[in-house]
Design goal:
The chain is α+β, with helices and mostly antiparallel strands. 33% of the residues lie in helices and 15% in strands. A hairpin with a 2-residue loop joins strand 1 (2-7) and strand 2.
């Protein structure tokens, strides 16, 4: 079946199974490998992308359900320079292995649009992506740095 996906502002026609998870369409068919496979059951968040501006776990979403949506991956988050959240990640040395970071960044960008000055409790409750390296303290520090600069919107 042909599906039409608007990814990072570009429309793509793919001939794929309509039940294929969006994650695999992005990685295997569009070669956008910044979105990672972690658990395949929507728990870890490594596959987080934006669907019409909302953070979603792409391993759970069939491509047939997103044809009329705007999909943004980590590759489409910023152009010509880092997004402020990406810059905060660099400035605060957030990643260790880095595997979860694209999904974490996508979750944080969406979160900060709704909660521009979050508390640690709000961050802990809403950012449920898993970092196996355990850099949660640096993640919170980076989120607060971006919120303080008010450049994330």
């Amino acid at each position: 079946m042909k599906v039409e996906l608007d990814v990072n502002g570009k429309v793509h026609q793919l001939d794929v199974d309509p039940g294929m998870p969006l994650l695999w369409a992005l990685r295997d068919h569009l070669h956008l490998t910044g979105t990672k496979y972690g658990c395949g059951i929507g728990q870890c968040g490594a596959c987080t992308v934006h669907l019409d501006g909302e953070a979603v776990r792409s391993c759970l979403i069939p491509v047939s359900s997103v044809e009329k949506s705007k999909i943004t991956t980590i590759e489409g988050l910023a152009h010509n320079q880092f997004h402020p959240v990406q810059q905060a990640w660099v400035d605060n040395a957030v990643p260790q292995c880095g595997y979860c970071q694209s999904g974490m960044i996508m979750a944080v960008v969406s979160f900060l649009k709704k909660t521009p000055m979050p508390t640690n409790e709000e961050i802990n409750a809403q950012i449920t992506n898993i970092c196996r390296c355990g850099t949660y303290e640096r993640i919170r520090k980076a989120i607060h740095a971006v919120a303080k600069d008010d450049k994330h919107v």
